[in-house]
From TrEMBL:
PANTHER family noted in UniProt: CARBOHYDRATE DIACID REGULATOR, DNA-BINDING TRANSCRIPTIONAL ACTIVATOR ADER
Family, per entry: Belongs to the CdaR family.
Protein name in UniProt: PucR family transcriptional regulator
Residue spans crossing the bilayer: none
One Pfam match: GGDEF_2
Gene3D superfamilies according to UniProt: PucR C-terminal helix-turn-helix domain
Organism per entry: Streptomyces lycii
InterPro entries per the UniProt record, alphabetical: CdaR-like_regulators, CdaR_GGDEF, PucR_C-HTH_dom, PucR_C-HTH_sf
Annotated ranges, domain PucR C-terminal helix-turn-helix: 299-355
CdaR GGDEF-like domain: residues covered: 131-249
Length: 368
């Protein structure tokens, strides 16, 4: 069988009953029935499932119409030009209905395939970022999306003022920026729990830097956190969890900067590893501030900004919108209440550690 004959046989599979419809319509002039239309839709679905092109499908129907036209009963029995025109009008209407129904079925099958693909991708992402599913199967599914889970990966997570999904314009904007710069570099860009997530090979830090830059701009100043590089299927979820922890820490600690690295924040989990010891330090060192007028919060805020400003009084006053004289009074009041002088290097370490602990434990808003 020649190539042309093979293609014709394939086309004929999706023309089942079509010639009979044309023959009957040419005599009766009727429209297609509901069952006939549904049969054409099902043939269109089947064609889509077997990757038979829609353009070729339409061409096959038009070609079959042209071949059938001279032998149609209505054409042969037409006695006048007017009758022939009526037959032609009925046949063309049937062709229009048939092609429309076939195309509808074809598109219906494609939409279903897209939804199934999206559902499978979302299931894979959930399994990947939560560390679920069989690791071997997870790695196999990852290959289809360009990830090699046996290698090292790092994960960056962007958090902004809105909740993002994969169809959100912000997510699309960031994705376009990455594709334009890096093309296909085995990068996975997705969304999870309203945040934008980028999974990149562990040796391609330029990818996460570019992601952070564009995500920060697109989310109108949102924060981006990057986990450490880890290998293996569990490495992605480990890096992802580190990035989430860094975002949470950044919010509690009021950390600035468009990109935060989990590796740079390791000291904070160490400080809270013994939560009770840290709580005792906060209460014993900063607890007396609660006796101040207005409570502990204004003086705690003063200490926090003072340490962030490198213990420079003029810069601290500027950040707090205070005069240097007012700031000096606050620092003296802290010394009076706590017995620790923020300007004394011997006292500064304990005070600063206690301030960090207060931020981490959300004191004084939360009772320790």
């Amino acid at each position: 069988m020649t190539q042309q004959q093979t293609e014709q046989a394939q086309d004929d599979d999706y023309l089942e009953g079509y010639a009979d419809i044309l023959a009957e319509v040419s005599v009766t002039g009727r429209r297609l029935t509901r069952d006939e239309l549904e049969a054409r839709r099902l043939l269109g679905e089947r064609a889509a499932e077997h990757a038979h092109g829609l353009r070729r499908l339409v061409a096959a129907h038009l070609g079959a119409t042209r071949r059938a036209w001279p032998a149609l009963p209505g054409t042969a029995s037409a006695a006048t030009t007017r009758e022939l025109r009526a037959v032609a009008d009925s046949v063309l209407a049937a062709v229009e209905q048939s092609v429309d129904a076939v195309a509808e079925g074809y598109e219906r099958a494609q939409r279903l395939a897209v939804r199934q693909e999206e559902a499978a991708r979302r299931e894979f992402i959930d399994d990947l970022l939560y560390g679920r599913s069989d690791l071997g199967r997870l790695a196999e599914r990852a290959e289809r999306l360009g990830l090699r889970l046996a290698h090292e990966h790092l994960v960056a997570v962007a958090d902004g003022p809105e909740s993002y999904d994969e169809t959100h314009p912000v997510a699309r904007q960031v994705e376009s920026a990455l594709i334009a710069r890096f093309g296909d570099r085995r990068i996975l860009l997705t969304t999870k729990d309203g945040r934008i997530v980028c999974v990149a090979p562990g040796n391609q830090e330029d990818v996460v830097r570019h992601f952070a830059k564009h995500a920060h701009a697109a989310t109108d100043g949102g924060k981006v956190a990057v986990g450490r590089t880890h290998s293996g299927p569990g490495g992605v979820v480990h890096s992802y969890e580190e990035a989430l922890s860094a975002l949470d820490l950044a919010e509690r600690m009021e950390l600035e900067g468009p990109m935060l690295r989990a590796a740079d924040l390791l000291v904070f989990p160490v400080l809270t590893r013994d939560r009770q010891a840290m709580a005792d330090l906060v209460i014993s060192t900063l607890g007396p501030l609660e006796r101040a007028r207005g409570g502990a919060e204004p003086l705690l805020r003063t200490l926090s900004v003072y340490f962030d400003a490198g213990c420079v009084a003029a810069e601290t006053a500027r950040r707090l919108s205070l005069s240097v004289r007012a700031l000096t009074y606050r620092l003296a009041r802290i010394h009076e209440l706590t017995g620790s002088d923020p300007a004394d290097p011997m006292h500064r370490y304990a005070l600063q550690t206690a301030v960090i602990g207060a931020r981490l434990l959300d004191w004084p808003a939360r009772e320790l």
